[in-house]
Design goal:
The complex is a heterodimer of chains A (about 375) and B (about 500).
Chain A lengths: L1 H17 L1 H22 L4 H13 L1 E2 L4 E2 L2 H25 L7 H18 L6 H28 L3 H21 L8 E4 L9 H6 L8 H18 L1 H11 L1 H6 L4 H26 L3 E3 L7 H11 L4 H23 L5 H15 L1 H22 L1
Antiparallel strand pairs in A: 1-2, 3-4
Helix pairs in contact in A: 1-16, 2-15, 3-4, 3-14, 4-9, 4-12, 4-13, 4-14, 5-6, 5-7, 5-12, 5-13, 6-7, 6-12, 9-10, 9-12, 10-12, 13-14
Chain B lengths: L3 E5 L5 E6 L6 E5 L6 H9 L9 E3 L2 E3 L4 H6 L2 E4 L11 H6 L13 H15 L14 H14 L4 E5 L7 H16 L3 E6 L2 H7 L2 E6 L2 E7 L5 H9 L17 E11 L5 E11 L3 E5 L6 H9 L4 E8 L2 E2 L5 H7 L1 E4 L3 H5 L6 H5 L18 H14 L17 H14 L4 E5 L7 H16 L3 E6 L2 H7 L2 E6 L2 E7 L5 H8 L4 H4 L1
Parallel strand pairs in B: 3-8, 3-9, 6-7, 7-8, 13-18, 13-19, 16-17, 17-18
Antiparallel strand pairs in B: 1-2, 4-5, 9-10, 11-12, 11-14, 14-15, 19-20
Helix pairs in contact in B: 14-15
Classes of the chains: A mainly alpha (about 375), B alpha/beta (about 500).
Chain lengths: ~375, ~500
Amino acid sequence: MSRNKQNRLVSGGSRLLESDAVVSVLVVILGFLVGTLLVALVGRKPSNMYKAIFQAFSGYNIDNGKMNVRYIGETLNYSVPYILCGLSMGFAERVGLFNIGGEGQYIMGMTVAQVFALLGPQIPVFQWVACIVLAIVVGAIWGGIVGVLKAKYEVSEVVSTIMLNYISLYLSRIICFQLPGATTYKTANFPPTASLSNSFFQRITNDSTLNNGLFMMVLAVLVFWFVMEKTRLGYGMRATGFNKEAARASGIPVVKSITISMAISGAFAGLAGGIVALGSFKYGRIISGMDNYGFDGIAVALVGNCTAGGTMIAGFLFGLLKNAQALMQSKQIPKEITYIIQGLIVVFIALRSGLKLYQEWLEKKRLQKEVAIK
Amino acid sequence: MQGITKTFPGVVANDNVTLKVKEGEILALLGENGAGKSTLMSILFGAYSADSGTIRIHGKEVEIKNPNIATELKIGMVHQHFQLVQNYSVTENIVLGREPVNKWKVLDIPSAEKRVSQLIEQYGLRVDPKALIEDITVGMQQRVEILKVLYRNANIIIFDEPTAVLTPQEIDELMEIIRRLKTEGKTIVLITHKLKEIKAVADRCTVLRRGKVVDTVDVASVTEQQLAEMMVGRSVKFELDKSPCKIGTAVLRVQNVFINDIQGNPKVHDLSFEVHEGEILGIAGVDGNGQSELFYGLTGLCPVVSGKIILSGVDITNMSIRERIEQGLGHVPEDRQKHGLVSDFSISENCAIKNYYLPPLTKRFGLLDFPLMKKNAQTLIKQFDIRAGEGADTPAGSLSGGNQQKVIVAREISLSPKVLLVAQPTRGLDVGAIEYIRKRILDEREKGRAILLVSFELDEIMNLCDRIATISKGSIVGTYKQGEVTEREIGLMMAGSKKGDAQ
C-alpha cells in the first residue's frame, strides 16, 4: 500500500516535471533562492530585496505603509519591450530558428519611429500610429532579410542576425545624427502628436510613463497565440520547427515558413523599438550602445517556453526586476543582484536536460524495483 | 560456457533471462524487433552493463565491463552495421587496435598480412587481404568483420542480424562460413528474426519475447511455423491471400531518369518503368543501390537531373512536393522518423499534415478546424486499429513503431492517391504490424491503386508484388512478372548480372 502510494508520488512528480510550465516556475524559484543566499552572503538583508520587489509589484511600501501606484505603471511599462522581444525570439524559436537579431530589429524599429516622429506630418493619432506601423514594417524587413538568407542560401541565422545587430546600431546613429536638433546623444523633442502617452493611464497610475504601448503589447501576445496555434500558417511553421524534413516531405513550403516567421519575429522586435522610442522618451535618442532588450528577450522566451502566455508572464517578471532595481539600491541591496537572478534563471533553464536525466534515473529505479519484486 | 542470468531495466529489455550456450554449438537467438536480443548480446559483449545477473564462462563467473574485457575472454561480435575504415586495406582494418609491431616498435603490416592469410585459408573466407574496403562487396566486408573477430582469437562469436544486408547468394555463403566455423570448434550465437536461417544452420534456438525467454528448443524437432508462433505468441499466417492481378492503364511513367545524391554522386542511372492501376511493382535490390534516391526524385525531395516523371498524363518532373501530392502522389517514406511524422505533433495533426491548408480543414481567414481534424483522425484510428493511449491527441513520438507506421499508411490511404509509393513499409515492425500493413497494401491494390514498393526484404517483394524489377547500381537489371522469376535469379540480378547470364 505504502509502496503503491510512493510509486504514485514518484510518477506524479515526474509527470509534473514533464510540464514545461512547472519547470519554468521551479527554475524561477530556484533563481530567487540562490539570489537570496547571495544577498545574505554579502551581509545585506534579503528581506529588503523582497520588499523592493513587492513594492515594484504592488506599489505598497512595507516599511512606511505608503502606497504609490506609479510603481505598478512603471513595472508594466518596463515589461512591454521585454515581452515583445520575448515574443520575437519565441516566434522564431517555434519554427526552429534562433533569432539573436532581436536587438537589431528593435533598433531599426526605434530609429524609424524617431525619424517619422520628427519629420512626419504632425497629425494627431495618425502620426504615432504611422510611427508604430513603420517600426513594425522595418522590423519585419530587418528580420525578413535574415529569413531569406537562411531559406534561400542557407546562411546561418545566428551569424547574420549578429552581424545585422551591429549594422543596425551604426546605421541608427548615422540616420539620427541627421535629425533636427541632433547633439551627441539626443535629437529635438518629439511633437505631442507622436507621443504614445495615455492620459487615462497617467491619471490612474499617478503619472507613470505607462502608455498606449500596453495595448499594442497585449494585441501582439494575442496575435502570436492566434497565428501560432490557430491558423494554417502557424501549423506549417510549427511543423517546420519540430521536424523540418518531415514538413518538407509533406509538402509544407518550408522556405516560405522560415522567411515569414523571421519577418513576423522581426515585427515584434520592431514594435518594441517603436514603443520604447515614443513611449518612454520625450526626444529621439542617438544611441551609443545597445539597450539589450533584444538579448534579454532571448531569456524571456526561454523562461516562457516560447508560448504567448508564458512569454508574457516571464516578461512581466523581467520588467518587475528592472523596476525594482532603483528601489533595491535605496535599501542598500546592489541592483546587480537582479541581473544575477536573471542569469541564474537562464542557466537553470538550460539545465533542463539535466532534469530530464534525473527523471530517467527515477524511472529506471522504479522499473528496477518492479523487476526485483517479481 | 553455461548459465547467463540477466535483468536489464530501463524498459525491462531483458527480464530475468537465462541463456545457456554449449561449447561448439550454433545457438540461434530468435525474437521480434524489440524482444531484447541485441540488448542481451550487448551485455555479453560488454557494451551495456546489466543491473543484475551473472555471466559464467566454463563455470567461472566473469564481469564484462567493456568490449576489451569481452575480447580478452575470447568473445567476439560481428555487428549488424560494419565498423570498418573505408580507405584502409582489409588487413589494416583487421589489425586495427591490435597492430603488430616489430622490434623497433614500427608497424609490421607484412607479418599481419601473413597471419590474416592463414586465417583466410583456415576458415575458407575468400577476401584479398590487400584490397581496400571501399573496393569490395558487402558480403566480403562482412567476412572482414568475421576475420577481425578471429584475429582476436575469439572462441564465442556473436552474429547480430548478419543477413540483413546480403543477397540470397551471399546469405548461402555466410551460412557455409558459419558451419565451417563450427567445425573448427567455435561456439556461435546467431541473432536473427529470420526462421529460414535458423533452420539452415542452428542446432538449438532460444526464443525471446518481450524480454523474456519463451523456450529453448532443438531446431531439428520444430517447424518454422512453430518457431514463428513461439516468437509472436500466437498463430501467424505466412502466405498472403492475393487475388489475381487486374492490370489497368499505366498511371506512373518514369522515363530515362537520372538522379544524384546530395553530394552530387550519380545514384540512379537511366531508369525507366511504368506502374499500372491495380498492380504492385516491386523494386528488389540490396540497400544502397539507388532505391532511396529514386524515391526522393519521385517525391520531389531531391531534384531529378534529367528524364521525365509522368503521373496520369501530367509531367510532374519539376513540380514542388506539394504540387505532386495534389496531383495524387502518395508516399510512405523509408524513414518514418525523418520524413514520415512530426513526432511532437499529435496523431490528429500528423494525419492532417498533407491537406491541412485546404478546405474543409482550413476555414475562412486561414483558420484551422481542429475539431474536424480530430474527428478525421479518430475515424482513421478506428479504421486502422491504431493503438494510442490518448486517442487522437497522443503525440506521434510516443507510439510504437508499428502504430507510427499505421498512422502514416492511414494518412496516405485516406488521401486516396493515384499512385502510392511505399518504401520499406515493414522495416523494424513486429510480426503483427507487418501482417497488417501488408494486408492494407494489398487492399489498396484490390481497389485499383497503382503501387510502387521498395523493399530490401526479398520475401516481402516475392509475396506482395505482381511484377518485380531488380535494381543494381542505380539501373534496373530486369523486370519480370511474379512467378516467372525465382528468388535465386533475383539474387543474381541484385549482384548485377542479367537473368540470361546466370544460366
